[in-house]
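Late entry, written up from scratch paper. The run itself happened at the end of the previous shift, but nothing got recorded in the book at the time, so transcribing now.
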Amino acid sequence: MKRLWVKYLSLILILAQTSVLFADTLTFNNGQKINGKLISISEEHELDPNTGVTSEVTFKVDEYQLKMISEELIVGKVDKSTLMFDKKSIYKITDDKGNILFTNNKKLKNEIGLIEPECRECPPAVKTVIKTTYYGLIFGVCLPLVFAILSMFLTN
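Output as recorded:
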């Protein structure tokens, strides 16, 4: 019985650790930072009458982070913890390793190579492929590892 308890505890710790791995940081132009998960970044479009902006960033945060966000930065809500922000109000979005996923700062874009002169006319599909490859690597490695560990626990 004691051994089974240790296995369950280990499983809970592993699953808790993986949730921390997927934390993104959104930094606003005013310097405020929030942690959560980037859901999507919309392309430029006509003015949306619901949000009042031409492009939105959808970001999921926990309840603690909700209290830290200025109401004037929020342009819409998908649900209680998934918020929409004006893309122009965001300085940068980084993943848990510090890699910049998005920035409005032109100097920063050129420094990290997010924008290349010959790539300015690239279709949005190119950006999607890069982002999909990144997430594919994460889920392609982490998910099978979690399933292998789970099967190991369940077969004993």
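The chain has two domains: 19-104, 116-156.
(Scratch paper discarded after transcription.)
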